[in-house]
Amino acid sequence: MNVQGFDEFELDLELAFKRDLPPFIDGLEAAPLTFINVSSIPVKKNGVYLLLQNNTLMYVGKTDSRGGFQNRLLRHSEHVKHRRNLDPTTMFFKAVAIPVFKNADLETILIDHYGAPWNNSGFGGNDPGKERDTQRPAVFDLEHPIDIDMELDFLQIGIVNVQELLKLLSARLPYTFRYEKKRHQEELDFNVEISSTRSSLRDMLTLILEGLPSGVWQVTILYGRIILYHENREYPFYQEIIRS
After folding, report:
1. What is d(CA 119, CA 207) in angstroms, rounded to the nearest whole number?
2. Beta strand pairing status for 56-63 and 240-243?
3. Mean pLDDT of 77-96
4. With left for phi above 0 and alpha for psi between -120 and 50, is residue 182 left, alpha or beta?
């Protein structure tokens, strides 16, 4: 439409982001991926973030939830703990708040610009549920499987009921730990003694299995999570199986 004194202007957001966002990110100093640093980000801020291993960009993400950057980055800071071939102290982040970006695919723009090997690798995924325990592990989990021999920092010396210990482990471990909750609960109702605060998950699982009926309980250490069930079976993909 050709109307004298009138025209329409449309801002090309995607072009502007491609041109201006990477240089802005490059000028931003990365911070260690720690609880203190992530908690210092203003609450409910949303936009894009990058995870770096030392100076190498590994993952690009975005957030537009109520929790903002804090919720997502705190989850990632836990996800990189107790993993083989991965030192959490080498992880850094950059986060850029962008008030309006819903119409632009910023993740794709930044992945195309930088490359990000952990995107589409299964990194940061939620627990897929019991029905997925037999499926091939995610690439991230194969490259960085969980390590049950890492020292736990939340144990207290003393006598504890196994059911309470299992709840504690499920809540505090930096990866998914699922255990039998619907049946055979009476077999989990006994006490164990934690004798050292420098114990590992393997130590705790050994204590628990020693008190369970022989041959009918097993811990399966998968690549990205651990399960403890009243069963005796093989799984197609696992690191280790420990039976009572």
Report:
1. 38
2. unpaired
3. 96
4. alpha
Please name each of the domains of the chain with its CATH number.
13-114 (3.40.1440), 130-243 (no CATH)
Q: What is the pLDDT of residue 65?
A: 74
pTM for the model: 0.87
Other beta carbons within 10 angstroms of residue 70's beta carbon come to 19
Task: List, for residues 203-216, the tens digit of each pLDDT value.
Answer: 999 999 999 999 99
pLDDT tens-digit map of 105-157: 889 999 999 999 999 998 976 655 656 788 999 999 999 999 999 999 999 99
**Which residues 6+ apart lie within 8 Å of 105 measured at CB?**
14
Q: Which two tokens stand for residue 97?
A: 């708040």
Best CA proximity match to 241, nearest among 223, 222, 225, 224: 222
Cβ(97)–Cβ(63) below 8 Å: no
What mean pLDDT comes out for the span 165-185? 94
Q: How far apart, in whole angstroms, are the C-alpha atoms of residue 95 and residue 48?
A: 6
pLDDT for 131 equals 62
